[in-house]
Amino acid sequence: MSKVLKGVDTAGLKFRLVDAKEQVVGRLAAQLSVILQGKDKVQFAPHLDIGDVVVVKNAQHVVFTGKKWKQKLYRHHTGFPGGLKERSARLQFEKDPTEILRKAVYGMLPKNKLRDVCPAASKAVSLLTFLSAPALQGPRPQATYFS
Fold it and tell me: Is the pLDDT confidence value at 135 over 70?
């Protein structure tokens, strides 16, 4: 896990283990963003970096409600004229199952002038890690937050 969190000072951080099996993407992302920002702690202050490291297992088993697998679109631009590309949630899931949850969590972080320098937003990609089945045999994170 040290390669995943390279360049992040983990002193004083808890590792929160979250089981995403059969969890709805939006509701899970809302809970994860609160942990990454540190808003679940008593000593929360917007200018302090007190968010914890979130380790998500079974991220490939998340679910959407309704018809979102077909209707929800993920868009990106290639940078060339007419280069707007879009994928349905099903195709995005087939390409990378963890990217759906990562984008949902990033979208729930605060959108303000400090987003690039905000500790939670800038390190969200580093602090939100995903475990696959072979990686679950190693040492366990300290605390299970919810499942």
Answer: no
